[in-house]
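Section: Multi-chain targets

For targets with more than one molecule, the full set of components is provided together so that the structure can be written out for the assembly as a whole rather than chain by chain. Components appear in the order listed by the source. The example entry contains two components.
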Amino acid sequence: MAAIADKRSGAYTFLAYVTLVIISIFCLLPFVWMALASVDTNAKLFLKWPDGITFEHYTKVFAEENGVRWFANSLFTVLSATVLVMIISGLGGYALSRSRAWWKQPFLYAILLIRVLPSTALLVPLYKVLLTANIGLGNMLRPITGEYYRTVMQWFGFIDGYLGLIVVLATGQLPLALWIMKIFFDGVPKDYEEAAILDGATLVQRIHRVLIPLALPGLAAAGLFTFMSAWGDFLLPLILLSSPELQTLPIGLFRAFLRVNEIDYGLLAALATIYLIPAVIAFSFARRFLVQTFSGGVKG
Amino acid sequence: MTTPMIQLSGVRKSFGQVGVIQGVDIEVEDGEFSVFVGPSGCGKSTLLRMIAGLETIDGGDLILNGQRINDLPPDQRGIAMVFQSYALYPHMTVAQNIGFSLDLKKVPKAEIAREVGRVSEQLQLSELLDRRPAELSGGQRQRVAIGRAIIKRPRVILFDEPLSNLDAALRVQMRAELQKLHQELRPTIVYVTHDQVEAMTMATRIVVLNKGRVEQWDTPIALYNNPINTFVAGFIGSPRMNLITGTITGDAMVQGFKADAGWVARLDGRSLAGSIGQSVTLGVRPEDIRPVATAAEADLEARVAIVERLGAETYLNVRNGEDTLLVRAQGDLAMTPGTSVQLALNHAAFHLFDQTGAVIAA
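Its structure, encoded as tokens over all components, is:
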């Protein structure tokens, strides 16, 4: 009996592995093409072994195109949004976890609703709101800033400005982050705080010395999800930014792809590879925190 | 008369409409090991948290060492607390956990190190100071939690069910360690548990709580020997006391207890002539019932339902009419369920309670 069972399970295992290998290859192929094409002297749209190895596509991204600027813009807006989300979701998640207010559940489901609505559908009204805010802000700032008006608006404007993109990116990611932090704090026993109270910790000390270290895995998870979603967001920077000096990486990639006469697959692949790297780095940093967050709270 | 360390008078607390603590009056002497015991939901943890300052007090006075501290912030009460979960900070080492309260007070590093050294030596934690809580066993964590409490040199240490997360063997060991700690350092301890064995073994005095009120408040042996009502009688002692309903029978000279199931037992050394016909509850501890050979020696006959042979003693679960009685017999008895057994009661160890559950004095 045992031998038959072993043989059968052996065959099943083999089948399972074959299936998994096929799926893995299917998933990996685009990445393989991208990596190969980015160093191919003669990259084409189909998968092929490079004619010769070169890094000129990468240098081209930074030297001929405005790659450094795009990368810096992406990193700045996305990191700012991430930090903003971590601060708000950390404080808000704590409050939502500890509060016994009657509106807690309705509120939590209401913010989830924001997330399930397709953001594209909200784009026009959102644009209208931001535009109005931007005109108001512009009217206020114009007399004060004088010749620096354009620069100031590029930083703090709601349309075609960093602040607008950061705020909208953060708002889009906040519901999920709030949920993550709320659930995370639900798993942090009140005992920790009460022990700190008895030890004489002030509110600031409790947050700084106890709650933040305890919440770090949750914050890392919330931050990572924010970073990855915001990093991958294409529509918002496309709609909200128009100045070339504010362009982010995905927009740069998109515009490079749209050039009709000269589709340079090597350049596109190199650009895409550069675009991937921060997400991969962020994930590898936060991986161990993710496991801790989703396998249940603080162990001590 | 010395001032008690902790004095609660008329202490009350409600959550919404529910009165959780309904007027508690107790005193805890300096150096005493006082245990609050009661079923879950009796308010014992709430009472402890009120002493700690983690819950507000709705009425009455909480007096510590002669000073009313109802409204004093928790950290200024000179009280330390060991939590059920221990609440050791997972991101700090053992040394940092123990020294945290001093660190918050901006005590110089050298002095913190000296104090942590002193405490860790007392608790045999010196080898573990660089470890994190996750790397410690349950017993070690408990000692760290105690270390974090005693480093503050508190006047009172509160324990909130500290042994309930440990396995049975470790619990016995930690009970012994806690007693040793108490004998060596003589702190005033208030300890909350739902486990009456912990209460019996460690307490100098036990406060039995039920539904937010103190049922009885005395030394462990006094509670065991003289429970003032059926609640305390049933709660203190393991296995629990048998409580049998019946009436007082007899004449002016001799009175007896007639169980609803029909059997009758003499009531020695009591004069209950005035209570004949009254409904009462008889309390007999399992160890005060023994199987006997003949019907002549026995008070009642019962049918064996369950036999638990533990070697040194045997627990018999027997049925007589509607009543189920537990018998704790010395030695190993090879009895078969379904057979009948003659049982003799220790008449001198009877407890009698009236219809309200209050004890009828001997």
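The domain at 242-353 of chain B is CATH 2.40.50.140 (OB fold (Dihydrolipoamide Acetyltransferase, E2P)).
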